Amino acid sequence: MGTEARVYFASARVLKWTHEESLPGKLEGLLEKAGLEGRFKKDDAVAVKTHFGSHGAHRIVRPIFLRKVTDAVGRTGAAPFVTDTVRIKGLEYLEVANSNGINHLSMGAPVVLADGIFGNDNILMDAGDPLGQVAVATAIHDAQGMVVVSHVKGHINAGYAGAIKNLAMGGISGSHRSCGWKCGRGSMHMIGMGQFNWDADKCELCYQCQEVCPLECISFPDEKFSLDNEKCWRCGRCVRVCPADAIEHEGADDETFMGGLAAAAKTVLSTFEPRKVLYINFLLEIQPECDCMPGADVPVVQDLGIMLSDNLAAIEQASMDMIAGAAPLAGSAAEGLETGPGMDVFKALHNRPWEIQFKECERLGLGTRKYELIELSS
């Protein structure tokens, strides 16, 4: 795409004490700019794809904002539903969503698991290189429209996690009935993250790696680290939580991993007709880790605002450009980090080439990184 894409932006700053100037009020204004009536029609099933968080991870997109989205979609005559794919056991994940304030009552719309309560309700689709076949969650595959509501934050593997990651790892199931996690989101981790090595001399036997593992792959027989390689999909949580740096990646391939994210996102989006997908990025409570982690750190930069676009590559580039221009916050994981041209808090924290995600999305036809930022006027 040769022309600039429009990315609408509402600043987190409140300069007038009116509802319209509040952030929920500004989101209403952004949704008006989206022209939802021209995108969704009566009785369209519209997935509001977000992240439900985790036990202890509370810095997700707040329910008040999600409700603004479902209300706006509902006014078109379409039928919104709030959804994510199974990350922990499905019934437990719904309880997590409820504890974080996401339920039918608060949303004014059903809250469902896109791949069923057991996480294997999905459809195999060809994602091309480097992934092969991936299992797209059925409720997302079959929906007529989608609003991708993403909490922008850091990520141990992706460096930056926004709408691309929300689609790629949130639109793909964790497992498939026949090919297991190798056709699920685990394949994205596996193709790029190599192997894990344990250094017995460094290990403090704190067992945090065992506790944080979502697939229960880690054990310590005779006080020695043991990893079930058949179950492990290299999510990297064990590496992240180890206080002694006793677990290390070997053979990590960032380029392949980022390419896998873009390919998976394209596969999920291929099930929708043109103009049926909208993206909203929340640059609020921008923490260093994914919302999958069992906890949430303090924000690494100040709240910036909300972005909206129908162009995936553009909204991701605009989001990261704004974050790259923000100063690290004192008292956060980013305190003391030196940032400047070519460097930002996420790259300083995770040392991942996040920009490959955006370049691959553009190459695959998922928008343009050239954008015009249009700030919502008061």
Helix content: 25-40%
Radius of gyration: 20 Å
Secondary structure tally, helices: 13
Q: Could you describe the largest sheet, including whether it forms a barrel? A: 8 strands, mixed
Mean pLDDT: 91
Order of helices and strands: EHEHEHHEEEHEEEHHEHEEHEHEEHHHE
Low-confidence stretches: none
- Beta strand %: 15-25%
- Label the structural class: alpha/beta
- Which CATH-level-2 architecture of the largest domain? 3-Layer(aba) Sandwich
| Distance between the ends | 31 Å
Q: What is the number of beta strands?
A: 16
Keywords for this structure?
Rossmann fold, globular, two-stranded antiparallel ribbon, single chain, Alpha-Beta Plaits, 19% strand, 16 strands, 8-stranded mixed sheet, 2 domains, 378 residues, 13 helices, alpha/beta
